[in-house]
Write the structure tokens for this entry.
Amino acid sequence: MDRLTGMKVFLAVADAASFSAAGRALGVSKAMVSKHVAHLEDSLGVRLLQRSTRCMRLTEAGSTYQERCRRILADIDETERVVSALRAEPRGLLRVAAPTSLGSYHLAPALSEYTALFPQVQVRLILNDSAEDPIKERTDVVVRIGRLASSNLIARRIAEVRLVTCAARVYLERFGVPQIPGDLARHNCLIYTGGQTPGEWRFRGPDGEYGLSVTGDFEANVGEAVRMVGLRGQGLVQFASYVVQRDIDVGRLCAVLPEHEANPLPIHAVYADRCLPASVRTFVEFLEARFLGGRGAVLEDRAFRSVQVQTGPLQGSRAEVMMAGEDAPQAYRQPAACL
């Protein structure tokens, strides 16, 4: 009998603790399962399973064999994926999860351009502000903003984003412009609860970066809701620059405390396996070329870049990338009327 098939059958029996359940899972008869296990035991010269009319358990040799079989079969699967990926073109369903604002402002246009380059890929973009687990949620790529917690997942830095504190001019005329972060204790701060540290805004001081607890009369777990309330003059907000830069450019919002702005936050593409399908590999490379350009660019509300996308076996296709606007944004835009 085939040894690899025997290993797979034995693992199914060990995991299910039942010959019948293993047979159902594998689509074979209980008798065939029993035959495979008996052949393995005869070949090895040891008892792998201790069986009785009431229960079944692994022997010491069976436990050792189970662990080794699982490792061997996983290595074989990975080897086959690696070899297949060398020839595979990007195709099939690509599932991408991202924070709502980042996905709307940047990833949706990027995905549209990516599928124009690779028309055999279908995209499913999942937007929410929770920390998605690629394995648990069955997504191929999760885009995350901020520092990453330690995990077994693989992360690739694709961009950075600035945090901007701002408010509508009518609010600042009524309550004054904060001069230092400590002044925020006397201000109404509108809180986005979908970030890593809700109710804590980031700033930079003489001793480095720090978090400052803020309070206010409005909070929401969707950034656009907080932004809209801020535009009405109800309070201050702190957002990624790509959310509010357009509002600042046209004078709807006024940036405050620019000299205390925190260091940019990293943006990572996170995935679960180093052996990537061609669609995931080329998409992550596309994001790097689009946003980083190899230099570590900071995402703003608008950007223009012509990028050469390296796609491994599929040699570089060219993509003209333009989000709203004509020129790449300056580091900070502040209408004089706001000051």
